[in-house]
Design goal:
The complex is a heterodimer of chains A (269) and B (202). Chain A has helices spanning 13-50, 101-109, 119-133, 189-193, 254-261; strands spanning 55-59, 146-152, 156-166, 175-182, 198-200, 207-215, 218-225, 230-236. By secondary structure, chain A is of the alpha+beta class. Helices cover 74% and strands 0% of the residues of chain B. Chain B has helices at residues 16-24, 28-50, 53-69, 82-103, 106-116, 123-143, 148-159, 164-171, 175-201. Classes of the chains: A alpha+beta (269), B mainly alpha (202). At the A-B interface, helix 1 of A face helix 2, helix 3, helix 4, helix 6 and helix 7 of B.
Amino acid sequence: MMDQQIPERRLSDEARARRRTELMEAITADDTRTRRWLAPVAAAAVVAGLVGGGYAVTRLGDNGAPDQRPERSLDVAGSGTATPSTQPTPVCGDITAEEPEQSMRDRAATPLWRDPAVAPSLQSYRDILVRHLDPRDAHLERRVTNIQAGGSPECGFDSLGTKLGWNVAGEDGLGMVQVEVSTSRRDSQVGMTFDVWDGVHSGLPGVERAEVAGDGDRMAVLVTRSDGLAVGILADPLFGNNAVTPVSGFEFTIHDLVATAADPEFALP
Amino acid sequence: MKASELGIRESDGVTDDVLAARLRAGDPEAMGEIYDRYADRIYNFCFRRTASWSVAEDAMAAAFLEVWRVRGRAVAYDGELLPWLYGVAGNVCRNSLRSQRRQTALGAKLHLVEGGVHEDDHADAVAGRVDDERRMAELVAAVEQLPEPDQQILMLVAWDGLTYQQAAEVIGVPVGTVRSRLSRSRTRLAELMSRSDEERNR
């Protein structure tokens, strides 16, 4: 029918070459800008993590595309170039901004989400989310490049979590699924996101308490296990940090979120 | 049109899966290879949405920039990157059309295209381009009378050559839905085109 009536052409050689040059120049400029931005952000995140063991939020790279080049020395706040050094003995429980600058630089050179003590845990969080919520692995951002952490690899974590983008094919928007594992419900940032939580009966093994909350299109669950560990999951059709357009929705229900949060494989490093 | 006629180097050893992985890792060379492999396909894809070769060229360029911006989400469905590229390019073309329509009516747009063709183009080539655009504009106008989801499926399968499975992945619907919508939209489009021909011949 009309399939045969549709005209097709090749780009002219001149247009093809010109557009290619423009593209490569643009992405090279973009890459340079990204790397200039990485150093101060990483350094700021390390400082935030060290001071008071607070929540260090790092979003490195754009749209789930971290810089995968070999590690480079980072110039932190214009204070010189980092060189490898032996790690100082960590001092836990009384960390202040007086942490040696060299240690800060070393930490900045290895983003926390890439730390060998942390990366496997974050990846396992994603794997669990995929298993329960996105079995075709078609929606969740593939690379974990975002971390929310209370504590540090050296001194242990009170909480560890990540936010993953949620894509829907054919849509412009970007949603988000946040997952967080914490040593107690009190330490859960997901728990602090909502004022009102409703207890629900989950009937799932190992679950001491299951709660749900929501507003608008957002929905969240908080499961406290019998060992005290709390797992919070928040699903938001709009990934507010990275997009202005929400996705149309999720394929899972709040019951699926409860079952996911109750997965016994969630653990802190 | 065959892949080789569109400049696709099918014999290249690098698979789309590998290119997708390299793109996700932020490799600019992979971006260049993807451009070399698929620029013509995206150019024609954009023409089928915009009915203008010049707009399609701009949209194609914008689409590849967008591909780089969202590279972290790159995925090869069944070993082919094209369905994902089409998904990205489709969004760019929609935005391009929206902004264009805000500024000008279709007739004026076609007139501008006619005037904008390179002066050194051969007269036959110019006529060919304009003729392409008129035919495509008629088709696009007919397709736009279909429900939005049907439009997408018709274009992806009938025009862009995706399999049912690939179209289902791009749109995020079951394969059965693709089949039923495609059948329905083909029938409806044939009616619309037939009516359009009758009106023109009156």
